[in-house]
């Protein structure tokens, strides 16, 4: 039953929690799926009917016939990468132009943004953030400094606007002493092809679109990219992304009033991972960490980068639940821990001065995790069809997490396929 509110789905850790699969599982309940932030540095991997798909900018509801999919104003879009992603989906039989609408207020990632990304990272030396180099940060920098190029600009006098923005970037690169422009002409040519391709889609004022759909009784799911700990305000700054990945980002990234937010689904793994540089209190550098990485296939969907792996961090998760206002938890990759004798969960931090805290601090660079050990379930759960088939030790693990996080775990994933998803009673 429609409540006149949107539901929000987001990651609670450092990204890569498995949001794409969950959106695809949840979309049958919704008429509209809208992406509210991030760029093509975030990949959602979905597997079903023996096919694997990686979505970078396109909402995960695209696979469900008859759903409206919206790329919101909070997203930054690379026309060439969007074109490649969209054409791949069209080849597999998904009619994108019928199902997808793009906000006029979404900002465009220019070819020069990618060069600026590399130049800024190089200038930081050993303090580099570990970006994907796809131009996300410089695009958001242009946005907040009021120098951005937007999707709506494609509709009038675009060549002039593009040339002015490009010239501005070239001056910045000259000031940085950057000289590596290898492959730029080919990239720019493909980018312009992407601009022409995008003209085949419907550009909309997404704030009006979303609110009109809501008023007409449609059920709407708002989809975030990355994870809460990569939020530019509340994440492990400066090792974060350049947008608001928390629930509030759905309001600014789509034009939705806070009073229109209903359920907030927070996705987490049964353990924890991180890509790129930055602090990670529960990171494992031993064979256990390697085993989690191999069993969980923890490699980036877009970049192929090895993910850093560690035990679940409940101090961090409780913080995420708080800032996001999570109403229900969804736990992914529970099956990855099937073979472990002992499972650990971080329940507090020891600060550099020796004191203990259960609150997420301003800096986490030098905190030490304090663990609670729980017995492993030592049973293959990938074939379970209902929660009644879960081993008792796993049920105890779930109960412990719910108690600590003071939030119900409503969905548990026990494998990559759409069918390997248990919705709890």
Automatic annotation (TrEMBL):
UniProt catalytic activity: IMP + L-aspartate + GTP = N(6)-(1,2-dicarboxyethyl)-AMP + GDP + phosphate + 2 H(+)
The EC designation for this entry is 6.3.4.4
Q: Which GO-annotated molecular functions does the record name?
A: adenylosuccinate synthase activity; GTP binding; magnesium ion binding
List, alphabetically, the InterPro entries matched: Adenylosuccin_syn_GTP-bd, Adenylosuccin_syn_Lys_AS, Adenylosuccinate_synth_dom1, Adenylosuccinate_synth_dom2, Adenylosuccinate_synth_dom3, Adenylosuccinate_synthetase, P-loop_NTPase
**Keywords assigned by UniProt?**
Cytoplasm, GTP-binding, Ligase, Magnesium, Metal-binding, Nucleotide-binding, Purine biosynthesis
- UniProt remark on cofactor binding: Binds 1 Mg(2+) ion per subunit.
Please list the residues that bind Mg(2+): 16, 43
Q: Where does GTP bind?
A: 15-21, 43-45, 307, 333-335, 413-415
Pathway-wise, it operates in:
Purine metabolism; AMP biosynthesis via de novo pathway; AMP from IMP: step 1/2
Question: PROSITE patterns of this UniProt entry?
Answer: ADENYLOSUCCIN_SYN_1, ADENYLOSUCCIN_SYN_2
Q: Where in the cell is it found?
A: Cytoplasm
Q: Does the keyword Cytoplasm apply?
A: yes
Named cofactor requirement(s): Mg(2+)
* Residue sites binding IMP per the record: 16-19, 41-44, 132, 146, 226, 241, 305
Residues annotated as binding substrate are 301-307
Record: active site: 16 (proton acceptor), 44 (proton donor), 143
Matches recorded under NCBIfam families:
PRK01117.1, purA
Cite the record's note on assembly.
Answer: Homodimer.
Name of the protein in its database record: Adenylosuccinate synthetase
Organism from which the protein derives: Prevotella histicola JCM 15637 = DNF00424
């Amino acid at each position: 039953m429609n409540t006149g509110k949107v539901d929000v789905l987001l990651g609670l850790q450092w990204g890569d929690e498995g949001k794409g699969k969950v959106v695809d599982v949840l979309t049958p309940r919704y008429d509209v799926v809208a992406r509210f932030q991030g760029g093509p540095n975030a990949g959602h991997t979905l597997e079903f009917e023996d096919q694997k798909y990686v979505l970078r900018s396109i909402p995960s509801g695209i696979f469900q016939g008859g759903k409206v999919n919206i790329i919101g104003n909070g997203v930054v879009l690379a026309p060439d990468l969007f074109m490649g992603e969209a054409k791949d989906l069209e080849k597999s039989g998904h009619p994108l132009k019928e199902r997808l609408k793009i906000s006029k207020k979404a900002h465009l990632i220019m070819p020069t943004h990618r060069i600026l990304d590399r130049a800024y990272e190089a200038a930081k030396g050993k303090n580099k953030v570990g970006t994907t180099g796809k131009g996300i940060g410089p695009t958001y920098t242009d946005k907040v400094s009021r120098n951005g190029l937007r999707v709506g600009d494609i509709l009038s006098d675009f060549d002039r606007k593009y040339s002015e923005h490009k010239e501005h970037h070239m001056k910045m690169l000259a000031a940085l002493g950057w000289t590596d422009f290898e492959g730029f002409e080919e990239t720019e040519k493909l980018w312009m092809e992407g601009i022409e391709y995008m003209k085949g889609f419907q550009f909309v004022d997404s704030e009006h679109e979303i609110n009109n759909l809501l008023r007409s009784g449609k059920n709407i799911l708002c989809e975030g990219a990355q994870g809460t700990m990569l939020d530019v305000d509340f994440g492990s700054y400066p090792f974060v992304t350049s947008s608001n990945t928390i629930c509030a980002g759905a309001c600014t990234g789509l034009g939705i009033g806070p009073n229109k937010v209903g359920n907030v689904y927070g996705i987490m793994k049964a353990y924890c991972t991180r890509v790129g540089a930055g602090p990670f209190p529960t990171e494992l550098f031993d064979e256990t960490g390697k085993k989690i990485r191999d069993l969980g296939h923890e490699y980036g969907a877009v970049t192929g980068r090895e993910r850093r792996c560690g035990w679940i961090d409940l101090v961090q998760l409780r913080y995420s639940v708080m800032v996001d206002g999570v109403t229900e938890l969804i736990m992914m990759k529970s099956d990855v821990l099937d073979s472990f004798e002992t499972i650990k969960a971080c329940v507090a931090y020891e600060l550099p001065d020796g004191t203990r805290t259960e609150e997420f601090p301003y800096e986490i660079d030098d905190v030490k995790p304090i663990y609670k050990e729980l017995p492993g379930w030592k049973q293959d759960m990938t074939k379970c069809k209902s929660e009644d088939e879960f081993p008792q030790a796993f049920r105890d693990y779930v109960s412990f997490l719910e108690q600590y996080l003071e939030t119900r775990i409503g969905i548990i994933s026990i494998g990559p396929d759409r069918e390997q998803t248990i919705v709890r009673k």
